[in-house]
TrEMBL record:
Gene Ontology CC annotation, any one: cytoplasm
SUPFAM superfamilies: L domain-like
Protein name (record): Leucine-rich repeat-containing protein 18-like
Gene name, Swiss-Prot/TrEMBL: Lrrc18
Entry superkingdom: Eukaryota
InterPro entries on file: Leu-rich_rpt, Leu-rich_rpt_typical-subtyp, LRR_dom_sf, LRR_domain-containing
Keywords of the record: Leucine-rich repeat, Repeat
Organism: Acipenser oxyrinchus oxyrinchus
PANTHER family, alphabetized: LEUCINE-RICH REPEAT-CONTAINING PROTEIN 18-LIKE, PTHR48051
Length: 255
């Protein structure tokens, strides 16, 4: 390789406008969905800007490393899927997708620093999947997602959950399976941490008094757990040479 030349990245498959148009589908509720999943795409195809009025966009199981700033042009998007790519950061303009209620970023290379503050502008977002990334902590911007109902955090490096995120008013399910929620206290604390592996949250108005009392007691126990320590062994997914190669057992979690 000559001096001063940069190593070329993956070229991937070239997507033409004709191919993209042939990938348009109608959903059961009459929405337009552009499905470009599992096509070996390495660069976001700019030609699909001519189809920016779609309601759903699926670019999962590709080789994308970057989401361009012009993602904001997809004003009608309600459903966006980027799972199983190589994305390391999100553009600030993603906050302009004001109709988005579903966002899947599972199985990428994201960290807390990868998520811009503008993510908190997604006021209609109800489902957010951040599983199988590199999160050791969660950014405060998630606390602005007041409509969020489900949050996927499985297979990360988390050692705790911020209270302002757990207490989101409409959050009903948080999946934190296979995170290093370690501690050095007694067996009772161990049991509490294990129950975090599948944590469900409901509004107080939906609970009877005995159940509400029990949940508050459990929350008090969680608030006392301050001595979490990160796992000495980082979680890796060496088998994921190609998307889905070793993740078949958990596909329903991160789709």
């Amino acid at each position: 390789m000559g001096k001063g030349k940069k190593k070329a990245g993956p070229t991937g498959k070239k997507i033409t406008l004709k191919l993209a148009k042939n990938s348009l589908r109608m959903t059961a509720d009459g929405k337009r969905r552009l499905d470009l999943s599992n096509m070996g795409i390495a660069t976001f195809p700019k030609c699909i800007l001519k189809l920016a009025d779609v309601d759903e966009l699926d670019l999962s199981r590709n080789m994308l490393q970057k989401i361009p700033d012009y993602i904001e042009d997809f004003k009608n998007l309600r459903w966006l899927d980027f799972h199983s790519n190589r994305i390391e950061t999100l553009p600030e303009t993603i906050g302009q997708l004001e109709n988005l209620f579903y966002l899947n970023l599972c199985n990428n290379k994201l960290t807390a620093a990868s998520l811009p503050l503008q993510l908190g502008q997604l006021k209609k977002l109800r489902h957010l999947n951040l599983g199988m990334n590199g999160f050791e902590c969660l950014p405060s911007t998630l606390a602005a997602l007041k409509e969020l109902q489900e949050l996927g955090l499985f297979d990360n490096h988390l050692t705790g959950l911020p209270e302002n995120i757990v207490n989101l008013p409409k959050l009903m399910k948080v999946n934190v399976k296979r995170n290093p929620f370690l501690q050095t206290r007694g067996e009772e604390d161990i049991d509490t941490i294990q129950r975090l592996e599948c944590l469900y949250l409901v509004n107080e108005d939906s609970m009877c008094k005995p159940c509400l009392k029990k949940c508050k007691e459990e929350r008090d126990k969680l608030n006392k757990l301050k001595c979490f320590a990160p796992s000495a062994r980082k979680l890796t997914f060496q088998g994921l040479l190609t998307p889905n190669s070793t993740a078949q057992e958990t596909q329903e979690e991160w789709r």
